[in-house]
Design goal:
7 strands; homodimer; alpha/beta
Chain lengths: 255, 255
Amino acid sequence: MKILITGIGGTIGSVIADALSKQHEVTGIDIRPLEREGTVVADLTDIDAISPLFEGVDAVIHLAAERRHTPDIGWDLLLPTNVVATANVYDAAHAAGVRRFVFASSMHVVGNYETDEPWASIAAGRYDGLDPETVPLVTADMPVRPDGRYAATKALGESLGRYYADCEGMEVVCVRLGTIADSNAIGDDPRGCVTWFSHADLAGFFSACVEAPGIKYEIVYGASANTWKIYDTASGWKALGFTPSDNAEDHRPKS
Amino acid sequence: MKILITGIGGTIGSVIADALSKQHEVTGIDIRPLEREGTVVADLTDIDAISPLFEGVDAVIHLAAERRHTPDIGWDLLLPTNVVATANVYDAAHAAGVRRFVFASSMHVVGNYETDEPWASIAAGRYDGLDPETVPLVTADMPVRPDGRYAATKALGESLGRYYADCEGMEVVCVRLGTIADSNAIGDDPRGCVTWFSHADLAGFFSACVEAPGIKYEIVYGASANTWKIYDTASGWKALGFTPSDNAEDHRPKS
């Protein structure tokens, strides 16, 4: 397959491009020049500039985004990168007949469930009386509860994906990503042990996102097989035919 | 209450402003000059220009929108009016401490359910074997299924509302509007008999949207008490304490 990755120079892009290149022809777009072969510098807000780059592409992985998600992040930053660029990448992919589209969404799209119990306790590391095998989970079909403007723009990307899947026959996977550290390390906060996505699992997961057969539209949660969960990761693993191999508990810093 | 209506010059704005003015102080913003007292001409994409208009306002009704929703509607039209303007109106309302926010969303946000049965049959007027009292309905908590880019922008407005409600304590009502005709007439297509929202019911409904106590965040469907339904209008009426009085069947053109 020919795979085009936007934002290929970021942490996630670098990890998955290395892995996918073993099986596929990987090209990339980034806003900054990169040494990686097949990478083009382009501004995704310029649809005329980027459209030719989608010709002949089988699968797009759209990672490029403003990733700051603090409450005070403004529309001046979010609009070009998380709205216009995402709209353009969908449009360019559709115009070029791209079959599979993987959209990097975020757990923040449903992040406000973490203010409810039992998830608030799990995120805070208060495990008393909770059994990780039986806690209820936030699933993919629960209403969105964005925890900020950033999250609302990610919900928009998911909505657009649903439209292109339902009406245009594009195969769309929206990955509500957890926490991917540059260093692959787990921090010492308990929420990070819920959302940790190891680099090895990340690579296998995205390979499954582009390769899994029978996909129409899926929202999947992106995290490793961590003991403590808030989000229903298992349904996504099943849809994608993917088995994670890491668990944050095995790598948690000793206190 | 002091109520600010954006897009007050449109069909919906005119109907509800007349009704709300009997009980409340109504001001308005429109992109075109209007003869209505209290109406200011302003461009909602200019947050500095509009922010002062939100001071002292108790409730905002955000109607202004690009309302064309054909599949070929482009981002050149949707971005300024349905994305930037909506983001700005939420921001300005929040900054001014507005308590209640009513967002004019659309049934198109979930419009692709109409491609599934039994809703496809109902929308096409094929009623054989269906009982309007027992057909399943599209509820407010089902995942969005936008039928185009326009609909995806309306889903964004709903997501932003959820954020402001969850995190900022704003009381938000998202109205997934059906069909409001300039003339109040019902067309001869069966879907219009499902989605018809009479002017009288529209006015009462929006009054309830601003006045109903105990609202945190609600998604409600906006249509009259029509015999044939696709969307779960009744839950919204209950949340708002509103009783519609019209039914499309009583006004349907004789064939």
